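Below is a filled-in request sheet from our internal design queue. Each sheet records the structural input a requester submitted and the sequence that came back. We keep these sheets so that new team members can see what a complete request looks like end to end.

REQUESTER: design group, bay 2
PRIORITY: normal
MODE: inverse folding
CHAIN LENGTH: 131
BACKBONE (tokenized):
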């Protein structure tokens, strides 16, 4: 049984300046902070491509979950923060591919632009921590 809380950093400079980590794995749950489609240098990937950004984010999140001993199949809920809700179907296609066998609960939230206007979407999730 895993009782130890594990904090997982992505190394992003935002974590230090804003006081957070990419994910926290507790006894039963893993909470992954809102994540954007950025590379290691903080540059936005897949500019203008909602589906591409969604896929990049979910790949990044799968890697974080793996560090906590979980996978996308353990995800209970995702929250997609979209700057343009009319493009939700584009994000939905990438989301559906990632969760084809184990769809989680899903919320779509329309937001104002992010810090970098090239960011079209951020995603956060909650997963069950396998025992």
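RETURNED SEQUENCE:
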């Amino acid at each position: 049984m895993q009782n130890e809380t594990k904090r997982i950093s992505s190394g992003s400079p935002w974590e230090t300046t804003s006081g957070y980590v990419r994910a926290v794995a507790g006894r039963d749950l893993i909470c992954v902070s809102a994540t954007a489609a950025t590379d290691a240098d903080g540059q936005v990937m897949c500019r203008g491509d909602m589906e591409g950004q969604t896929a990049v984010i979910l790949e990044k999140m799968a890697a974080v979950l793996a560090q906590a001993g979980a996978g996308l199949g353990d995800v209970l809920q995702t929250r997609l923060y979209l700057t343009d809700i009319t493009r939700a179907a584009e994000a939905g296609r990438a989301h559906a591919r990632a969760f084809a066998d184990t769809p989680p609960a899903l919320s779509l939230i329309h937001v104002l632009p992010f810090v970098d206007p090239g960011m079209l979407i951020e995603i956060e999730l909650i997963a069950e921590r396998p025992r």
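SHEET NOTES:
- The domain at 6-128 is CATH 3.30.1330.40 (60s Ribosomal Protein L30; Chain: A;).
- The two ends are 6 Å apart (CA to CA).
FILED BY: M.R.
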